Amino acid sequence: MVMPMPLLAIENSTDHGGLAILDGTRLVAERNWIELRPHRAALFEELRKLLDEAGLRADAFDVFAVGAGPGGFAGLRMSMALAQGLALPGGAPVHAVSSAAVIADAALRESSARRVAVVGDARRGRVWLGVFARRDGGPEHIGEWELLPDADALVGRLAAQEVETVASPDADAIPELLTAATAGRVWLRGARRPSAAGLGQLVQTRRAHDIASEPLTPVYLHPAVTVPPRFP
Fold first, then answer.
1. 97 and 104 in contact (C-beta within 8 Å)?
2. For 134-158, what is each residue's pLDDT tens digit?
């Protein structure tokens, strides 16, 4: 069994970024911020501040945790590159888990539901959906990520997947759709964004249960947006 080790968690899938240091399951220090700049430079500034506050160097960690999304591609790509870069000199492992699983983990702790759906804004009237089942090692993603065109399609999928509870990191962007789609189900209202502390704790749980890392590839479910050329 893999025992908990000092860990740095990086969660940058939304505009609410976070970093956390855990010693086992104990939260040592964390920093949270709202990202206002498109180039996501706050991640590096906040990391320096976190390490200074904790009195640690970047090579002090035996494992790194990173949120894989779904979310903004720039933030996901940057956080994965940062985690891999910090881990490379000492050969420390990088453990990825979907940011939606972090939301589902918190939702399952709040409720007695067997299955939780995490629903996000995929823009242009679409939503993305991930369904998670309660397991000893943390939420298990059931099936595939899905892109759905409207509330009716979401209602059908929630029923087919026997979902009892719904949470969303984008509740402020799609409140009407969620209201329509969650009739008869528990909707954990408010934007349920993944936290770095929650990410780190979930990764420690998964490692203790010998659950392998997810691929170090951003989960990006927003449809591609094409821009017509300015000149013929």
1. no
2. 999 999 999 999 999 999 999 999 9
User: Under CATH, what is the fold of the domain 99-191?
Assistant: Nucleotidyltransferase; domain 5 (3.30.420)
Q: Where do the CATH 3.30.420.40 domains begin and end in the chain? A: 7-98+194-208, 99-191
Tokens representing residue 55 in the block: 């009195």
The DSSP secondary structure of 86-119, one letter per residue, reads HHTTTT--EEEE-HHHHHHHHHHHHS--SEEEEE
Tell me what pLDDT residue 36 has: 78
User: CA–CA separation, 147 vs 50, rounded Å?
Assistant: 36
| pLDDT score for 230 | 60
Q: What is the pTM of this model?
A: 0.93
CATH fold, domain 7-98+194-208, is Nucleotidyltransferase; domain 5 (3.30.420)
* Rounded-to-10 torsion of CA 204, 210, 213, 214: -110
* Residues forming beta bridges with residue 34, ordered by sequence position: 16
